[in-house]
Amino acid sequence: MATDTLGLLLAVHVVAASVQDRDGARRPLLWTRPDHPGVRKIRTDQGFAGRLADSTATVIGRELEIVRKDPGQKGFQVQPRRWAVERTLSWISAHRRLALDYEQQPAHSETMIRWAVIGIMVRRLTRGRPATRPSPRPLTHANH
């Protein structure tokens, strides 16, 4: 899956679980060039290092930046600028059909992902006001 910095879908390609992420990423990366010519830099995690980074520069003319963990990091930490795809995955997992793998055909899974993202975009467009986070409220006995 490729998203923009807002977490909106640019490209999706579903493959079998036996396919390495860096091999499955080639097609969505190729689609970003003609479909989204304004994309100049692509950020990803360490799993996509190696030949994919080299071929991204030579084949599609984009820079693939590998966002690496700090050398002394222990446990999970949000990596700057890499969380957009994970955020989108959490948004679409709220859609019941995507909560489990119901689809037998990869094309059907891709369609359901696109459908979920369309729903997210429509809600944003019809909201009629800027997105805001509700202020946190302290818990009281009345809220239980």
Summarize the structure.
With 144 residues, the protein is mostly helical. It has helices spanning 21-24, 26-35, 51-59, 83-93, 106-126, and strands spanning 2-3, 9-11, 41-44, 63-66.
Helix content: 25-40%
Largest sheet descriptor: 2 strands, antiparallel
Continuous helix count:
5
Average pLDDT score: 79
Structural class: mainly alpha
**What coarse outline follows from CA principal-axis ratios?**
globular
| Poorly predicted segments | none
Report strand order across the widest sheet: 1-2
Compute the separation of the termini in Å.
Answer: 39 Å
One letter per element, helices H and strands E, the order comes to: EEHHEHEHH
Q: What is the count of β-strands?
A: 4
> Which band does the percent of strand residues land in?
5-15%
> Over all CA atoms, what is the radius of gyration?
18 Å
